[in-house]
């Protein structure tokens, strides 16, 4: 074996070691990413009618039906088990949110491990915006 071929063999073994380490790191990262996705499942909002008023329907999923749900830091009583939902009158949503907010924070507290997963969930467009009454509207021709 010449000096040059010995160097090539060592270089090749080093590349294999680096690839192995990188493979393990990618595998570990993908496992952590899947845990994060599972900890914060999809949550949605929509505007619904509740009697004479309008309400915000917030729905989502949780791993444990005993897990508590918070919206903007306030505990809420939800209906359902793993798939849950809650109706909030718009007055409460306005009181719990910043003016002209576009999102709310939904937190699911795991009852077994005391781990919490928080997500920012988009509100329906213009829900907490200001209403401007127009006295007239002019439309010009181009």
Which secondary structure elements does this structure contain, and how are they paired or packed?
Elements: H1 3-39, E1 44-50, E2 53-61, E3 68-71, E4 74-76, E5 79-80, E6 83-89, H2 90-96, E7 103-109, E8 116-122
Antiparallel strand pairs: 1-2, 2-6, 3-4, 3-7, 5-6, 7-8
Number of helices: 2
The fraction of residues assigned to DSSP E strands is 25-35%
Give, in spatial order, the strands making up the sheet with the most strands: 1-2-6-5
Query: At the first level of CATH, what is the class of the largest domain?
Result: Mainly Beta
Work out the radius of gyration: 26 Å
The mean pLDDT is 79
Strand segment count: 8
Largest sheet: 4 strands, antiparallel
Question: Could you state the oligomeric state of the chains shown?
Answer: single chain
N-to-C SSE string, H for helix and E for strand: HEEEEEEHEE
Given the C-alpha coordinates, what overall shape results? extended
Output the CATH topology of the largest domain.
Answer: Immunoglobulin-like
Instruction: Supply the helix-strand structural class.
Output: alpha+beta
- How many domains comprise the coordinates? 2
Going by CATH, the architecture of the largest domain would be Sandwich
Which spans of ≥5 residues are poorly predicted at pLDDT below 50?
32-40
Q: Distance between the terminal alpha carbons, to the nearest Å?
A: 84 Å
The helix content is: 25-40%
């Amino acid at each position: 074996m010449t000096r040059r071929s010995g160097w090539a063999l060592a270089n090749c073994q080093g590349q294999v070691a680096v690839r192995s380490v990188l493979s393990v790191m990618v595998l570990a990262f993908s496992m952590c990413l899947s845990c994060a996705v599972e900890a914060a499942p999809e949550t949605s909002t929509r505007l619904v009618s509740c009697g004479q008023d309008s309400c915000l329907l917030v729905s989502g999923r949780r791993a444990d039906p005993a897990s508590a749900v918070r919206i903007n830091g306030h505990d809420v009583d939800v209906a359902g088990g793993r798939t849950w939902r809650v109706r909030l009158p718009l007055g409460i949503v306005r009181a719990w949110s910043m003016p002209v907010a576009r999102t709310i924070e939904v937190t699911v507290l795991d009852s077994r491990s005391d781990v919490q997963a928080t997500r920012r969930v988009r509100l329906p467009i213009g829900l907490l915006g200001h209403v401007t009454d127009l006295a007239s509207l002019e439309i010009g021709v181009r």
